[in-house]
Known about the structure:
- The protein is α/β, with parallel strands linked by helices and 485 residues long.
- It has two domains: 4-258 and 301-316, 3-Layer(aba) Sandwich (Rossmann fold), CATH 3.40.50; 332-479, no CATH class.
- Helices cover 40% and strands 15% of the residues.
- An eleven-stranded mixed β-sheet has the order 2-1-11-10-9-3-8-7-4-6-5. A three-stranded antiparallel β-sheet has the order 12-13-14, covered by helices on one side.
- It is elongated, with a radius of gyration of 28 Å.
- Residues 292-298 and 316-326 have low confidence and may be disordered.
Amino acid sequence: MSAPIVIGAGPTGTPVTIDMEELLATRLLVQGNSGSGKSHLLRRVLEESAAIVQQVVIDPEGDFVTLAEPFGHIVIDAAAYSSAEIGRLAARIREHRASVILALDGLEIEAQMRCAALFLNALFDAPREQWYPALVVVDEAQMFAPAAAGDVSDEVRRLSLSAMTNLMCRGRKRGLAGVIATQRLAKLAKNVAAEASNFLMGRTFLDIDMARAADLLGMERRQAEQIRDLERGHFLGLGPAISRRPVAVRIGSVQTGTRAISHAFAPPPVTPADDLFALLHDGLEAEPASPSAPALPLPKPVAAEVLLDQITLTAETAPVGEHDAPREDPEPIIAEILAQMAEEPDAPFQSPADLFQDFTVRCRMRRIMVPGLDVTRFRRRFAMALAGMADPGDERWADVLQVAHAVPEDLLAPFLVLARAAMDGAPCPDDETLARIYGTHSSGRIRRLLDNFERQGLIVMRTDFSGRRTVTIPQLGLTSAAEDA
């Protein structure tokens, strides 16, 4: 299922989009000098995709904490928690699919690298059943994946570089899609940058950075000069999620702002030199020294236990952008979405995690919330939809669902198909139909599955002399018609 977001406009005014589904599989690298609009681009991507994918932002400057109020992100002030608490928070984030911002601006650079590494490793080490797709945005990535040794210890540098390498090289199979941004490609470790398949290159001036950017964009060296001439907020994009050929894009507007101080031109006040001298020196000796005031502090940190509970509760809140939607019963829409998914030929062959992600995206696009529906419950609901029972509230299925209560989720769909045939008096499904419902191409596997059902007393199979099969559900006393010839 395609999920495009508009990030800006091309030279002719046509919208330029990023396909989020493709991005989750191919990762993104953003490069641009300070002042090129790199953070503005990241903010645009985060705002436009907030409603369709979980987001985890590694924020070394605290620029993205303003996303919290309008989009429901949880801000984690890293300076307020221990290493063990950071790990537990990351594990809870994976479990409950909360969108968060890890604000590192209260830490020194070495502590930032260590904290980010512990956090990323905990996300990476989540159990397989929690490998839901998530966008992991790392701003100033050259700090966490430096190309060469710097002022930090070798132990911290290796720890941070290893975590970033895992994110970009092995994170895709665990649902973690890296989006990294750097001021200079030359300062970013090559094995981290090389794993990105999508690129958005902004203004840069050094020859080595222009040459690397041109190589990544598939441009000739003599064309690299145009990267130096890009205006603020203008980027060259390339990649399967953006465009198959380099495309120029002017990044669109954003809803939130940064906490950084504005650098707009402001002339100093006109004050006579003698008066200004007096203002600076009057009473200087008697005035006690005071530390400089911190600029725009983060919200007051909360205890780790409280934040863990807050992350848990996000699983039961409305998705971003839905608080203004009319409150209506979501069940008919959920049933409709499940029925649509069940009709897609390849749906039974997809993994439960991919199906659940597809389902949640469709729900968000329909502006509905599904509190309490985790991946286990979703698998049972989807199995019902495959059997034509998308609505669990239909009283016709009550007895069948009671019998099926003990059937594991991965075996539920073929059992419900057999039970529905018996309930409706319809012909018994053939091996090919059951194989598709079960998500396999092996008829032998289906025969073993039916034998297993019989041994458990769930069904009784009978085959007549012509080879036509019927199925009986003994607990319901119902029997299907004979299988079609």
